[in-house]
Amino acid sequence: xxxxxxxxxxxxxxxxxxxxxxxxxxxxxxxxxxxxxxxxxxxxxxxxxxxxxxxxxxxxxxxxxxxxxxxxxxxxxxxxxxxxxxxxxxxxxxxxxxxxxxxxxxxxxxxxxxxxxxxxxxxxxxxxxxxxxxxxxxxxxxxxxxxxxxxxxxxxxxxxxxxxxxxxxxxxxxxxxxxxxxxxxxxxxx
Length: 190
Hints:
The chain is α+β, with helices and mostly antiparallel strands. Helices cover about 30% and strands about 30% of the residues. The chain has helices spanning about 25-40, 55-70, 115-130, 145-155, and strands spanning about 10-15, 15-20, 75-80, 85-95, 100-105, 135-140, 160-170, 170-180. A hairpin with a 3-residue loop joins strand 1 and strand 2 (about 15-20). Helix 1 (about 25-40) packs across helix 2 (about 55-70). The protein is globular and about 35 Å long.
């Protein structure tokens, strides 16, 4: 399994948001956020299901911490900087020897429509390209996930291709759209 060449800081300040590495104390907030948004998240996120439980949140946090230490994935909570409210999650994973990685994001249902996913995705993509020295950041999404597609477009990602059966969600194959970022939309100092 490939690793990121460099490490990221566990707290990243953006305009309105803070990206923060997960810790054990996030279990209840993560559980409540996913449960409250599962109807909207489940069709597009393989880890989300109607019976999502606190145990699932604990398991995810342990996994996120382990992959952070191994430098195979950087998963962050998205929080409102002013209030600390949990808004969603964003992460980079699956680094390759070719210098690319995947970018994923989700936002709680009651926090959609404010540009939070775009801000978080742009910020983490910029760090990936600038600090982690990635050549390309890929965004892979279901052809039916119109909201995620709009976020990809707003980050400045370029459409690469449509891949028939390119995404597996809840044991079913879905056609996927693949976008790529090769230039950061914003400049960050890490």
